[in-house]
Specification:
Blueprint (H helix, E strand, L loop, with lengths): L2 H11 L3 E5 H14 L5 E6 L6 H10 L2 E4 L2 H9 L7 E3 L6 H10 L2 E4 L2 H10 L5 E6 L21 E2 L3 H11 L3 E5 L9 H15 L7 E3 L17 H19 L4 E4 L3 H4 L3 E12 L4 E5 L8 H4 L6 E3 L7 E7 L7 E9 L6 E4 L20 E6 L2 E6 L4 H5 L11 H7 L1
Parallel strand pairs: 1-17, 2-3, 2-10, 3-4, 4-5, 5-6, 6-7, 6-8, 8-9, 9-10, 12-14
Antiparallel strand pairs: 1-11, 11-12, 11-16, 13-16, 14-15, 17-18
Helix pairs in contact: 2-3, 2-9, 6-7, 8-9
Protein name: Diaminopimelate decarboxylase
Cofactor: pyridoxal 5'-phosphate
GO molecular function: diaminopimelate decarboxylase activity; pyridoxal phosphate binding
Length: 411
């Protein structure tokens, strides 16, 4: 997918617009599956990263399952044709009623709370469940995406294992999987391997396991020369540890992962048009036709997205602060060195495949953009741009029969 292709997409579908390269999703999936040489490997794509049905259908064709966190994501997966047996459901803080609703849909249940585990086991001891363990390992790109530490709301503390085992014994429930997820953007595979030893030790307490799920958190590069998780090295080392554990356990288990960002982040480009160039006493601003209502990650996580001027790529670079049209702090990048920007140029944001559209909103009553998939050398519209009718579709107007003067008089 070339810059010329991207420009043609903005001409056909307007801007702003999200574009996903199917070939990149496919190659990332193949790289991941090639890295782990085990008897059975299960890859469950984290739907929350990018939940468009066409993306789910593509991954399903590759043989990928789904990692879901809501009953709605489970239903999206089923609508995309994914077999319910290949969907794992790992909620946090949801009602028992929602979990039971997912049970009826046939997905694998993964429970991360002792109270819910006891309630579920008492009511449905015949249904196998996976247990999410908190290994108390601090890992991830920053505190907002580190979820395996001692203060995290996620998972059952490894120190609560005696209580957990008591619940399992008292309810007679069946544990068929054990799971952890320490965080996102993990650089040090040593930390990952250390946490895996904790999970292996916990797994020895359960005799009916079918799989061990190591979550994900693999880091992708955000700029040229950026560090990323060495999947091949991790694959070689973890495969060796896993096979050793399986021999000690007495039978072959499945090795599972739940990548989201790793599979789709680099496939995505977010394209926006420059509305204004504003020179101030200290800065040159490039104001674009979007804001954090469409791409909140830089403001929310401090994440970096490379910004390229695809309309004028050979021009002399200058420094710009790229900002949006939202009436609050809305900066995508400060003092970025970008080929000279003119009003009307199209800027391309990299790594826009994960947690971009899925975290978009209608803040300022703006429409959410279209989504396009580049597949087999062609642009395919996979979500229409919203309209004013979409903004008002579910609103119900009150028929105020009282005049403004009468309302004031009542007070």
């Amino acid at each position: 997918m070339t810059q010329k292709d991207l420009l043609s997409i903005t001409e056909e579908f307007d801007s702003p617009v999200y574009v996903y390269d199917a070939d990149k999703i496919i190659s990332q999936y193949q790289r991941l599956t090639n890295a782990f040489k085990v008897n059975e490997l299960r890859i469950h794509y984290a739907v929350k990263a990018l939940s468009n049905i066409s993306v789910l259908k593509l991954l399903n064709l590759l043989g990928c399952g789904l990692d879901t966190v809501s009953v709605q994501e489970v239903r999206l997966g089923l609508k995309a044709g994914v077999d319910p047996s290949k969907i794992i459901y790992t909620p946090n803080g949801v009602s028992l009623e929602e979990i039971e609703e997912v049970v009826k849909l046939g997905a694998q249940i993964n429970i991360d709370n002792l109270s819910v585990l006891e309630q579920f086991g008492s009511r449905h001891p015949e249904i196998p469940v996976c247990i999410r363990i908190n290994p108390h390992v601090m890992a991830g790109g920053n505190s907002k995406i580190s979820v395996g530490h001692i203060d995290s709301k996620f998972g059952i503390s490894i120190h609560q294992m005696p209580h957990l085992l008591r619940i399992v014994e008292n309810t007679g429930m069946h544990i068929n999987g054990i799971h952890m997820h320490t965080g996102s953007d993990i650089l040090d595979i040593g930390v990952f391997l250390y946490a895996s030893e904790i999970l292996f030790e916990a797994a020895r307490n359960f005799k009916e396991l079918e799989f061990i799920d190591f979550g994900s958190g693999f880091k992708v590069p955000y700029r040229e020369g950026d560090i990323e998780t060495d999947i091949e090295d991790l694959g070689a080392q973890l495969t060796e540890k896993f096979e050793k554990f399986c021999k000690e356990y007495g039978r072959e288990l499945a090795l599972a992962f739940e990548p989201g960002k790793y599979l789709v982040s680099e496939s995505g480009k977010f394209l926006a048009k420059v509305n204004v160039i504003k020179q101030t006493t200290s800065t040159v601003f490039a104001g674009i036709d979007t804001g954090f209502n469409h791409l909140i990650r830089p403001m929310f996580y401090g994440s970096h997205h490379e910004i390229t001027n695809i309309s004028n790529p050979e021009a002399k670079p200058r420094f710009y602060s790229v900002v949006g049209y939202i009436c609050e702090t809305d900066t995508f990048g400060n003092n970025r060195r970008i080929a000279e920007i003119r009003e009307g140029d199209i800027l391309s944001f990299s790594n826009a495949g994960a947690y971009c559209f899925s975290m978009a909103s209608n803040f300022n009553s703006r429409y959410r953009p279209a989504e396009v998939m580049w597949y087999n050398g062609k642009a395919h519209l996979i979500r229409e741009r919203e309209t004013f009718e979409d903004l008002t579709r579910h609103q119900i107007e009150i028929n105020f029969e009282t005049s403004p003067k009468e309302l004031v008089d009542k007070e």
